[in-house]
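Example (one chain per record):
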Amino acid sequence: MPVADWTVPPPTPVLREAGEAARKTTPRRLLAELETSGRDPLGILDAQNATRLPELVPLRVERMSASPFAFYRGTAALMAADLARGPSTGIQVASCGDAHVANFGFYASPQRTLVFDLNDFDESAWAPFEWDLKRLVTSIVIAGQATGRDETVTRRAAHATVHTYARAMQAANAATPLQRYFAHFDADSGIGPHDDGSREVVQAAMKGAAKRTGERAARKLTERGDDGRLRFIEQPPTMVHADERVRDAVDDVVAAYMASTRVDVRLVLSHYSVSDTARRVVGVGSVGTRCYISVLEDGDGRALLLQTKEAGCSVLIEHGGCPQPPSLLEHIDANGEGGRVVALQRILQGVSDPFLGYLRRDGFDYYVRQFRDMKYGIDVEQLGDGPFHRYALACAAVLARAHAQSPRAGEVVGYLGGGRRAAAAVVDWSYAYADLSRADYDAFVAAYRPAG
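Predicted structure:
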């Protein structure tokens, strides 16, 4: 079992009692304490840049410098290091590791319906449940401040996020493990709009998601070469053709990836061959990691796009120091960090891309997924106050569904109780961290701003 080690957990009342007992070790008010001694934020970012493709580091700096929220998106490592310094419940659950509001959104289920869920798992690992919750709430605070909302609106949304998470955990814990496993959020009901403004935003996002298909991307990003095969259209620096070494290894890479997929997916892939591969820049904090996009064609020239992305050590492990179940460590040893990403994604999402897979090549670990399979997010800066509030609650419910898959979820319920005291502490911490992150952003911009 490459995810965790446990025996059958005790009954729910026993777990809840254990969670209540944890309040004595770590009173809920201590969740407000932010320890800042010994920080070296720019040192952490410099160390990350040293592992990135050097020609792309300036682009990473540019994207992270765009705004305090963009900077926050790229600093999961800083937050993990900061969380490790402070009080912790020690109640470990399978965690996203980067659960900010921009890492929730729409994507296609295997049944081709739209679902709303977490959609980024590069940093996933086991960690105290409140780490994901604090990352989410802090992102709500920073996003609210970035859009100039009245502080009352932002603070209310932040408090409601913790309360919603606590209530959703209670509801999930009352269900059976099988019911929790099958639970997911359809796009229509995942955000639950109740007014015209909310409905328009969600419907626009759903229309955008429906258009972001692999077929549409292939038409936009590729053209027919002289040999009749599809070739990527270069768009430097964000997309350039892979170097000769990568192109020569494509067949071996595809074979290694296919070995990690399900038998039905391998059969589907047997209808295709790789036509071209390009290096593509993705995200904010991920800029500079090795990421490739491949176009595959079937016998009739129809395209399938797959993305192969480098997977490094989770920040929860590297910077947060979170102990991991021995079987997960064994899984990483055997299958690489890409294996970790895929395993945790399948746990945390209600439904996942059936094409997920992983491989190791030339000392680097990768995971593979479909490219642009209706994946689409909501820009919180475009939301009115009401939709902003409801979107925050939707993210909280999704996060609770993900955490509820873990055997110690009952302890989370016992620890949080009604959620009032925990909400006060988590929101205070999140406001303090938003201020700290803004100071880090100012220092980052000052350090990397081009001379003159």
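Caption: DSSP finds 19 helices and twelve strands in the chain.
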